[in-house]
TrEMBL record:
SMART domains, sorted: AAA (SM00382)
One family name in Pfam for this protein: oligo_HPY
Domain spans labelled ABC transporter: 7-249
Species the sequence originates in: Paucidesulfovibrio gracilis DSM 16080
Name listed for the protein in its UniProt record: Peptide/nickel transport system ATP-binding protein
A biological process from GO: peptide transport
Family, similarity comment: Belongs to the ABC transporter superfamily.
Length: 325
């Protein structure tokens, strides 16, 4: 469905009192990822690691500095706007700010269909009613306004709007983190059943590993703009390979008694993407850092079938490491 290679996105920012100091933010830095048709790929990482920038790049809302995004075997830059909008949709974190408060729910859900303009009005209205019923809202809700709904219901409206054009890939950016804990499971279950019914592929962005562990087939871990580990869910939660993944996992209670509790080894703050560390971006915080880690960046490679990691612990034999040192 989606292949990303060597992706870079940099921004020039100005700082200082007179805003004369220039800096380059490496929001996405040499990122590799592939999303398979029909799967849910969970993308996890701390805030500020570049997850949302990656989402905007995939949606074509921003242009990469370099690298490739290939959607269904076609480079993203060759996609026409309308086809791209029909194929990739996004569900945002905040159902309060992502819905226009002046519009009825019916017009909100119909809007993407109106923009695409492929069908006559009556058909677009029919599709709108169908989508609202799929997300568990009724006919009467069409004429109501967003403020008349609860947070969970608003997110259902946002989901109906995103899925109305029948996209193939849906980027879900923290879709339940703004919701009450009590209704998160309902919305997650809804996303799961819609995926089955509509044959959707999800790229599911979250900082919440317990959500990821429930919903995702594979997990990608992002750190300072790069994917540092990509693995099937089971293999990831049983034996995370990257020291950063291991640290994330120990920080979150995962309801699986087979995973022994460990000490939380992660220390220090996420470094600024304005001056990412040389070598492995995780080395200033890594409990297993070696000499080479501060000098050379490890490559992202497959260390066992389907399990990819960027870390010197798996890069080469000890002898090779000595030779490189
Ligand atoms: Fe730690 Fe080195 Fe692996 Fe980076 S490459 S995660 S610093 S061991
Ligand atoms: Mg974000």
């Amino acid at each position: 469905m989606l292949t990303i290679r060597n992706l870079q996105k940099q921004y020039v920012v100005r700082g200082g009192l007179l805003r004369t100091k220039q800096g380059v933010v490496h929001a996405v830095n040499d990122l590799h990822l592939h999303v398979r048709h029909g799967e849910t790929l969970g993308l996890v990482g701390e805030s500020g690691c570049g997850k949302s920038t990656l989402a905007r790049l995939i949606l074509g809302l921003e242009t990469p500095t370099s690298g490739e995004i290939i959607l269904k075997n076609i480079p993203l830059e060759q996609w026409q706007g309308q086809h791209l909008r029909r194929t990739v949709q996004m569900i945002f974190q905040d159902p309060y700010s992502s819905l226009n408060p002046r519009w009825t729910v019916g017009s909100i859900v119909r809007e993407p269909l109106d923009i695409l303009g492929r069908h006559p009005l009556e058909q677009r209205r029919k599709k709108t009613r169908e989508m609202l019923s799929r997300v568990g809202l009724g006919q009467d809700d069409m004429a109501r306004y967003p403020h008349e709904f609860s947070g969970g219901q608003r997110q259902r409206v946002a989901i109906a709007r995103a899925l109305a054009p029948e996209p193939e890939l849906v980027v879900c950016d923290e879709p339940v983190s703004a919701l009450d804990v009590s209704i998160r499971a309902q919305v997650l279950n809804l996303l799961h059943s819609l995926q089955k019914d509509m044959g959707l592929t999800y790229l599911f962005i979250s900082h919440d590993l317990s959500v990821i562990s429930h919903l995702c087939d594979r997990v990608a871990v992002m750190y300072l703009g790069s994917v540092v580990e990509l693995a099937p869910r089971q293999s990831f939660f049983k034996t995370p390979r990257h020291p950063y993944s291991a640290a994330l996992l120990t920080a979150v209670p995962i309801p699986d008694p087979s995973i022994p509790p460990q000490e939380m080894p992660l220390t220090g703050e996420l470094p600024s993407p304005l001056s990412p560390p040389q070598g492995c971006p995780f080395h200033p915080r890594c409990p297993q850092a070696m000499d080479i880690c501060s000098r050379q960046k490890p490559t992202f490679r497959e260390i066992q079938p389907g399990h990819h990691v960027a870390c010197w612990l798996y890069e080469a034999t000890t002898q090779d490491k000595r030779n490189m040192s």
